[in-house]
Amino acid sequence: MEEEARRVTIREYDPETDRSQAEAVDRMCEVGPSGETSLYTDLLGDPLARVRHSPAYLMLVAESNGPAKQLVGLIRGCVKTVTCGKKTHRKETPIYTKVGYILGLRVSPTHRRMGIGLHLVRRMESWFRQKGAEYAYMATEKDNEASIRLFTGRCGYSKFRTPSILVQPVFSHRLSISRHVSILRLPVRDAESLYRRRFSTTEFFPRDFDAILSNPLYLGTFLAVTGSTSDPYRWPGVDSFLGYPPESWAVASVWDCGGVFRLEVRGASRARRLIAAISRKIDRAAKWARVPAVPDLFRPFSVWFLFGIGGEGEEAAEMAGEICRHVHNMARGRAAAVAAEVAACEPLRSGIPHWRRLSCAEDLWCAKRLAEEYSDGVVGDWTNSAPGKSIFVDPREV
Questions:
Q1: Nearest to residue 365, comparing CAs of 338, 391, 396?
Q2: Closest-CA residue to 7 (of 58, 73, 106, 60)
Q3: Looking at the domain covering 167-358, what would its CATH class be?
Q4: Among the ranges given (18-32, 43-57, 249-263), the one the predictor scored with the smallest mean pLDDT
Q5: 2-159, what's its fold?
Q6: Are 300 and 69 in contact (CB under 8 A)?
Q7: Nearest to 326 by CA among 250, 222, 205
Q8: CB within 8 Å of 79: residues ≥ 6 apart
Q9: Tell me, what's the pLDDT at 34?
């Protein structure tokens, strides 16, 4: 395999000459659950779309040697600084580390089992080290045996976290929101201050969180607290809110993934398509019936992503659910689904509405420490640490 891999050249992606071939490799490598259907991701003609919003990013391609050169593989990666633990003295403070994230590893079906994927990963890890990254991690489906075998078997990664991806379709009818709950959109500065002061010790919280909130794909941060239409909750400012918080509250932010990519379910039977179409017609014609219609997932569709989900109190999960319903109503006509990714032990998970058939109960994150010469610091080797209750999923890497 190592000898076969030498028949290709690994180099940096050139958007001027490689764009069409890179798109072709992406199209050949559809991903999704096994069976008759597959989930295709359309990057809207920009192979760098899924990493372009990160602070530092790189895309490498594998080009076959010989007279008929062609791209047969590619890999994307980005580097950022995130929270990996916390110090506890009088108050908790985050411990930061620099990490590299691998996504979009693709190898043409005609060139697999030749060691090309391994070479692409090693070259990306080399770039991570040049950027000062102490760790690398990647995410894959738990049943993607080929990817797991490559990363854990040959590249030295270990299974690290198993978050859940929760997906709720967007219907044409509005979802009802409790009259006893007030939902507020926070000013950007207040949203940043709230997250940094309350959630900055959550695993993978990005140090450049302000860059997310200033991105045009960011759609807002929403807070849910007890209140009513006759007596709505009034935002007192971050200091007063954290000093005298409500008994229960929740917060979440929204990102428009449709500005980066479109998804499409392919391979579904005509019967399934017909049933879905009928459910949508009924939903549009009789919105009062609140039919749980299946959106048109068989043509390119957009997804909104909920991130930074958190809160406190006995009713925090219910408050998170109210935010999800509010975002659903915002997304009508603009997205086909609202998704979130949360830790396996996330306390608010029970309140997030989702369809089991569209969701993934256990996504798999694998991690690797890149350089043993780094100081063990306070947390030691992060890859050996136990998972926390929550995790921050950066919307720029969805």
A1: 391
A2: 73
A3: alpha beta
A4: 18-32
A5: Aminopeptidase (3.40.630)
A6: no
A7: 222
A8: 54, 55, 56, 57, 98, 99, 100, 101, 128, 131, 132, 133
A9: 42
227-230-236-240 Cα dihedral, nearest 10 degrees: -40
As given in the structure block, the two tokens for residue 307 are 């991130």
DSSP three-state, residue 318: helix
| Strand arrangement of the beta sheet that strand 363-369 belongs to | 8-12, 56-64, 71-88, 92-107, 135-141, 363-369, 158-161
DSSP letter string over 166-200?
EEEEPPSSPPP--TTEEEEEPPHHHHHHHHHHHHT
Tell me the two tokens of residue 329: 């109503």
Reference 378, options 136, 86, 137, 81; nearest CA is 86
CA 365: distance to chain centroid? 11
Amino acid, single-letter form, for residue 267: G
Tokens in use for 131?
A: 């950027």
At 6 the three-state DSSP class reads: coil
Residue 237's nearest CA partner among 193, 202, 271 is: 193
Residue 217 has, within 13 A of its CA and on its CB side, a CA count of: 25
Please state, as a whole number, how many other Cβ atoms lie within 10 Å of the Cβ of residue 237. Answer: 11
Asked if the model's pLDDT at residue 377 lies above 70, the reply is no
Same fold, 2-159 and 167-358: yes
Ranges of each domain in the chain: 2-159, 167-358
Amino acid 250: pLDDT = 98
Q: Which phi and psi (to 5°) does residue 195 adopt?
A: -65, -45
- At residue 30, the pLDDT reads 60
| Amino acid at position 353, single letter | P
pLDDT digits (tens, 9 = 90+) for 78-103: 999 999 998 877 678 999 999 999 99
Instruction: Supply the DSSP symbol for 120.
Output: H
Going from the C-alpha of 321 to that of each of 94, 157, 192, 351, the distances in angstroms are 28, 35, 22, 5
Is residue 354 helix, strand or coil? coil
Give the distance from CA 35 to its chain's centroid: 24
The torsion angles phi and psi of 296, rounded to 5 degrees, stand at: -75, 90
pLDDT at 375 over 60: no
**Contact at 8 Å (CB) between 128 and 155?**
no
